[in-house]
TrEMBL record, chain A:
<dbReference type="Pfam" id="PF03591">
    <property type="entry name" value="AzlC"/>
</dbReference>
<keyword id="KW-0813">Transport</keyword>
<feature type="transmembrane region" description="Helical">
    <location>
        <begin position="33"/>
        <end position="56"/>
    </location>
</feature>
<feature type="transmembrane region" description="Helical">
    <location>
        <begin position="184"/>
        <end position="203"/>
    </location>
</feature>
<feature type="transmembrane region" description="Helical">
    <location>
        <begin position="215"/>
        <end position="244"/>
    </location>
</feature>
<keyword id="KW-0472">Membrane</keyword>
<protein>
    <submittedName>
        <fullName>AzlC family ABC transporter permease</fullName>
    </submittedName>
</protein>
<feature type="transmembrane region" description="Helical">
    <location>
        <begin position="76"/>
        <end position="98"/>
    </location>
</feature>
<keyword id="KW-0812">Transmembrane</keyword>
Automatic annotation (TrEMBL), chain B:
<protein>
    <submittedName>
        <fullName>AzlD domain-containing protein</fullName>
    </submittedName>
</protein>
<keyword id="KW-1133">Transmembrane helix</keyword>
<feature type="transmembrane region" description="Helical">
    <location>
        <begin position="85"/>
        <end position="103"/>
    </location>
</feature>
<keyword id="KW-0812">Transmembrane</keyword>
<feature type="transmembrane region" description="Helical">
    <location>
        <begin position="37"/>
        <end position="55"/>
    </location>
</feature>
<feature type="transmembrane region" description="Helical">
    <location>
        <begin position="62"/>
        <end position="79"/>
    </location>
</feature>
<keyword id="KW-0472">Membrane</keyword>
<dbReference type="Pfam" id="PF05437">
    <property type="entry name" value="AzlD"/>
</dbReference>
<dbReference type="InterPro" id="IPR008407">
    <property type="entry name" value="Brnchd-chn_aa_trnsp_AzlD"/>
</dbReference>
Length: 249, 104
């Protein structure tokens, strides 16, 4: 994609610029999303099976996929609901888990200034971890992923592909619950997926401090009532990151 | 029904957080917020992942903990070497599967 240089050359306002076709960008987005979809299959299947076994109605549990569109919060919310945890703890826990979306929102906004209001409000729904990772990976390349129109096409292409796949994978897991063999060790898939989400974030010492503290405190606090260990660990990790990062963080 | 309402509440809250800065493109969050937000991802995700790896199903047992931790190490090494999410994930799962098979 050399759209950046092309539009520079055509900077004179009167020169009609043939719009770059969107189709290749959307196809590229779908192709980029395929390996990520593959990596989410084990976690999605486990999550689906967990949803089905949670003790709340399977359809209600699965509705967390379109409602939340984020596996970590879905897993937490449905497990806590199934175990009869306090409703306030469930909502607070899931929102804390998803509060990283605020960061994604702020980060992506810097690349979305040319998008229409409708595109920004609509696109926000699709802003999950892998969608953000793929989009930001492309938008921070030298050509910036093309003009606003091409960036939106790419973002929506990735988002729609991953959304559709996630609905299908979690539904399959829900339907296949009990059929999947234990020997596959799919239960490891969920924490492994979260671990692989963390690793790319560990680009600085404060980030390491946040992750190490958050993880270790959560282990130490795992005896606390449902969901609280996570909250305590997360709070300790954020504090540790801010402490190590100091004022300049 | 109450469960569905809880999920809807979380869904609305999550959507509003996703839209917070994107919908008002250009508005930058305050510096303090940005500074704390960058640690939310690592802290929260590690706080979910580590307890589940150390004590799968809430218990530390050699039959569960060893394969899970080995899977984590293998996935971490593969990710560092290849930067490939699928490769690291399936490599880690294969390691867990292999050790479980050896131990039983």
């Amino acid at each position: 994609m050399h759209t950046g240089s092309r539009s520079l050359r055509a900077a004179a306002p009167q020169v009609p610029l043939r719009p770059v076709p969107l189709r290749p960008v959307v196809l590229r987005a779908a192709a980029d999303a395929v390996p990520v979809v593959a990596a989410y299959v084990p976690f999605g299947l486990t999550l689906g099976a967990t949803l089905a076994a949670s003790g709340i109605s399977p359809l209600v549990a699965w509705s967390s996929s379109p409602l939340l569109f984020g596996g970590a919060a879905q897993l937490l919310a449905v497990q806590l609901l199934g175990a009869g945890a306090n409703v306030a703890v469930v909502v607070l826990g899931a929102l804390v888990v998803n509060s990283r979306m605020l960061l994604y929102s702020a980060s992506l906004a810097q690349h979305a200034s040319g998008w229409s209001r409708r595109a920004r409000w609509g696109g926000a729904y699709l802003l999950a971890d892998p969608v953000y990772a793929l989009a930001i990976g492309r938008f921070t390349k030298p050509d910036g992923g093309g003009d606003a129109r091409l960036r939106l096409a790419y973002y929506l292409g990735v988002g729609a592909t991953l959304w559709t796949a996630w609905m299908a994978i979690t539904a399959s897991g829900t339907l296949l619950a009990g059929v999947l063999p234990d020997g596959l060790r799919l239960d490891v898939a969920a924490p492994l997926t979260f671990l692989l989400l963390v690793l790319p974030m560990l680009t600085s010492r404060p980030a390491w401090a946040a992750a190490a503290t958050g993880g270790l405190v959560a282990v130490a606090a795992s005896g606390l009532p449902l969901g609280l260990g996570l909250l305590v660990g997360a709070a300790a990790g954020i504090a540790a990151g801010a402490l190590v990062g100091g004022r300049r963080g | 029904m109450a469960d569905l309402l809880v999920l809807v509440a979380i869904g609305v809250g999550t959507y509003l957080m996703r839209a917070a800065f994107l919908a008002t493109a250009g508005a930058r969050p305050p510096a303090v917020v940005t500074r704390l937000l960058q640690y939310v991802g690592p802290a929260v995700l590690a706080a979910i992942a580590l307890p589940a790896l150390v004590a799968p199903h809430g218990r530390v047992t050699s039959a569960e903990t060893v394969p899970a931790l080995l899977a984590a190490v293998v996935a971490g090494v593969l990710w560092r070497l290849t930067r490939s999410l699928p490769l690291a994930l399936f490599g880690g799962l294969a390691a867990a599967w292999g050790v479980t098979w050896l131990l039983t």
